[in-house]
Specification:
Layout (H helix, E strand, L loop, with lengths): L1 H11 L8 E2 L1 H5 L1 H5 L9 H9 L17 H9 L5 E2 L4 H12 L3 H10 E8 L5 E9 L2 E9 L7 H10 L2 E2 L5 E6 L5 H18 L4 E4 L2 E4 L1 H7 L3 E3 L2 E2 L20 E2 L3 H8 L13 H17 L5 E6 L2 E6 L5 H4 L12
Parallel strand pairs: 1-4, 3-5, 6-12
Antiparallel strand pairs: 2-3, 4-5, 7-13, 8-9, 10-11, 13-14
Length: 337
């Protein structure tokens, strides 16, 4: 099943230029999200699972760097891919430690308890893969695999590359870029993937099954109200928006570069911070938290820019949008001490 998913995902992202996130936990372990009613509470059950899988919650995130688990490597091979282990340099290790140190308080606490390990691969077709290690009595542990190349890119470089995959080659005088600062790309990606771990560990976005009917939990109601009907069906009013026709949506397409300004104008009329946010409500949460933290806490820019002949002709700062700002209140949960 996962091999089929990876094959389809790689085809979806055009293999060589793929910059997509793949959070396997969201697609291969629906029970832990959709029907598990238990909420994380520190106690003997969590400690037993940690002990069973060799997770020391007091260990540093850097010390959790390991080789990619065999089952994950096999899934790549089964999908026709051949990534290889990356040997980290001292400078790369510093980059990793710095990136994880920037995570919000809730991420720090939950990842210490639930992130078993991380690894880095060369020749990896996607950017990051968050995989469930186990689900025992509602207690989830995770492994995150990163593409090693991101250790040598800034956020601006990486997000620009990712954003450009949304557009087909057209008018060569028109380009799309993202001004997002000079911090390591891993800072952005660790924020995004770390949000998936928090989401899955605390069951933040989930539905409780009661008498055969699914009802969203409290956080889901607040986060999705007026925006999402379910995991991948938007509810907000402008349902014919170009944003819902992007490559990140089923049946979507790559836009022409000449359509770029129209795309971002359409995005400005939605509560989403990026085109990728429309992929699912899990990706929406990961994206808005990441961009919020990047801009409001780390004081970095996040601006989508369309240029012609090297001169900006259109720009959009998603965090300046009233509909995006309105959603910021619920993100305070990630900053409680």
């Amino acid at each position: 099943m996962i091999a089929i998913f990876l094959k389809n995902a790689i085809k979806f992202c055009k293999v060589k230029s793929s910059l997509c996130f793949f959070a396997v936990v969201l697609l291969t372990a629906p029970q832990s999200f959709a029907q598990n009613k238990k909420i994380l509470t520190p106690g003997s059950a969590l400690q037993e699972v940690q002990h069973q899988y060799g997770l020391n919650p007091k260990s540093t995130f850097l010390s959790r760097v390991t080789t990619t688990p065999d089952d994950i490597m096999q899934k790549f091979r089964d999908a026709g891919m051949s990534p290889t282990a990356h040997q980290l340099t001292n400078e790369e290790r510093k980059t990793i430690a710095a990136a994880f140190a920037t995570l919000p308080p809730l991420h720090q606490r939950v990842l210490k308890q639930h992130l078993k390990s991380i690894s880095f691969l060369d020749n990896m077709p996607n950017t990051a893969l968050t995989s469930p290690v186990t689900t025992v009595e509602g207690i989830n542990l995770y492994h995150i695999t990163f593409r090693a190349g991101i250790l040598h890119q800034t956020i601006s470089e990486w997000v620009t590359e990712k954003e450009r995959t949304c557009f087909a080659r057209g008018d060569s005088t028109i380009t799309v870029s993202v001004e997002a600062g000079m911090l390591s790309a891993l800072t952005y990606i660790a924020l995004h993937e770390g949000t998936h771990v928090v989401d899955g560990s605390l069951h933040l976005i989930a539905t409780d099954t009661i008498a055969g009917q699914s009802a969203p939990n409290t956080f889901t109601k607040s986060f999705a109200q007026g925006i999402w009907k379910n995991i991948n069906t938007p509810e907000w009013p402008v349902t014919d928006s170009m944003v819902l026709k992007s490559r990140f949506r089923a049946g979507g397409r790559r836009f022409l570069t000449t359509e770029a300004a129209k795309v971002y104008t359409a995005l400005s009329q939605t509560p989403f911070v990026s085109q990728y946010s429309t992929a699912s409500w899990h990706e929406d949460l990961a994206e808005i938290l990441t961009v919020y933290h990047l801009t409001h806490v780390l004081k970095q820019p996040f601006r989508l820019v369309v240029s012609q002949n090297g001169k900006p002709v259109f720009s959009y700062d998603p965090m300046s949008s009233a509909s995006v700002k309105k959603r910021s209140e619920i993100l305070k949960r990630f900053y409680t001490q």
